[in-house]
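Hi support team,

I'm opening this ticket because the web form for multi-chain structure prediction keeps timing out on my end. I have pasted the exact lines I submitted so you can reproduce it. The total is 682 residues across two entries, so I didn't expect it to be a heavy job. Is there a limit I'm missing, or should I split the entries? Thanks in advance, R.K.
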Amino acid sequence: MNIIDIAYYTIKRVLKDRKSNIVKIFVPIIAIIILGAALKGSFEVSSMDIIEVGYLNLDEGSTGDTVIEMLKETESINKLIHLVEVSSIEEAEEMVINDKISSFIVLDKYFTKKAQSEEKNAIKIYSSEYSDYRLTVVQNIMDSYANIYNTSVAVIGVTKNPVEFDTTEVVKTNSISIDGKKPKAIDYYAVTILVLTLLSGAAYGCELVGEDYIDVMGKRIRSTPVNPIHQYAGKMIGACLSNFIQGLVMVLFTNYILDVNWGSSLLPIIGFTFLASMFATAMGAMFCILFGDINRAGALTNLLVPIFTFIAGGYIKIDFGNIKYLSPSQWAHTAFFNTIYDGDKNLVLMSVLMLFGGTLILSTISIIAARRRSI
Amino acid sequence: MILDVKKITKKYNKLVAVNDISLQLEENEILGLLGPNGAGKSTFINMILGLTKVDSGTIEIFEKKLNRIIKKKIGYVPQDIAVCNELNAYDNVMFFGKLYGLRGDKLKESVKKAMEFTGLWERRKESPKKYSGGMKRRLNIACAIVHEPQLLIMDEPTVGVDPQSRNNILETIKKLNESGTTVIYTSHYMEEIEEICTKVAIIDNGELIIEGTSDSIKNEVLTEKLVRLQLEDEIEKSIELINDIEGVISLSISGDTVTIKSKKEIDNLAIIIEKLVKANIKIISINIEQPTLEAAFLSLTGKTLRD
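Hello R.K., no limit was hit. The queue was backed up. Here is the completed structure from your submission:
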């Protein structure tokens, strides 16, 4: 029961500070509006250059030639890729290294035989280790083509009649947003600034939990019959919910007033907001308990959160490679963006697990450290 | 017995904060803990409250070792004001009432009683930020007595308050004691200790130097008494007359006043006056200095409380 009491009065204390709350909620919203407007141009979709793709047809039969011919003649594919014949894999690799082609496809010498025997057949795609979106385009085209090809082979197998298919529909352009909205700068910055605000909420964990373990108030509370674990849990819940409420107001305001795209449902967004709040609060609390000093812990939090945000591309989209995965901001960004734009569900799950697991680890360290400090 | 402390010691590396202190406190007593800064008073209180680990020795409160049930019977008023400025006074007292396990109507009644007791009920809706120093101190006390503790531990509760608020706080403590609360009270102010405490313990350098009632300590420690005589004239002559009287230890002159230090057990004031009257030396005033705890403290430790 004391956990609820401590959490309730913690939230009440935070929410009573109206001036501070207004600043904490509306400054990020203003930042979203400013960045969304100022960097609008950077997020406008420009047309893509035609992608150069090498091909090596080693097929001893005729199906390989047919496939290449069809690829070359399909108008919708030609708008995206240009096929260049190569004489060997070595030559193709050299061309990829020199960026003359983005990738290359290979039809092996048994391609026709495999097609006739209905064996599993595939057009192999090779690319550089550091390939970009162009590989994805080529892969998608080849997958689409392979699906149609396999379908026609299956139909021929059953009907023994040749089948025609409409090559004009091989490539169809769809928006990457599941509800049909194209991503705007404000949509991007709504996510990154929200994550920045939530992680900055580590200050709540630092101040509110810290005062219980360091300040005279904490000494006083420890003289009461309250279980120290309940005391910690109550403060953590209160600080986390205070942070969450501010994040929630930001989400609702940007959704209903600024028309920011948060995807088809707000529920997962609210869930991630809560998760990020939990992580941030646990992080702030841990620093405070380990340092035994609210100011030093606060200074470290203020230093780390912008660094996390920066390497996760929260201010300007820069790719720091694998380093970015060390940033909790990146975990949160991944969860938000992949949900909003219907991306990889596994990545969402992984990010959620990272945030949740991180919270558990940080809280465990805090509790152990707090127990060692007290009697 | 409310408190039974046996041979407790606390060391911080080489510093011995509390050294082998034993102390007993009976029900309904007010124990005054006296000592200069760094004497070990706060460490002693923290050990009683379970906030500081005891290196050796034992502490029993209500004849048991400290546990959560015992903690419900204890109230603690820290030296620094420990209230939430973001909450109003009522919510502050309410919060502590809940921490001590009070609920429902009992909680509301107790909060009202504590706030009325400390004279804050009329201004309960205000933030402590708007309170004067004295009112904040009273709120600090209200938070500690909301659960009607049997033992109240107060660490310098009158620091930095005006005389009116101090009197108010002292009256509150007396009333609490009359209603059955046992009190441990630390202070720098001897007059407060003398006014309210039924028992005094003097701590210095982590050691308990003496304990007893205020009078017993003064009687035990002070072996001298002081008389100040203000004379109209013939100061030098009076010195010659008084110097030989039995029991007189020393004499000093300051303007028209002669200060006579005598042995406590020898009653020589009548003889002194008689000799001066016979020599036609006119006495303007006689001031017999009462023995004080301050003097006893000085005599015991060689320093004043504010050293």
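A quick check on our side: Chain A touches chain B through 23 residues (CB under 8 Å). Let us know if the file doesn't open in your viewer.
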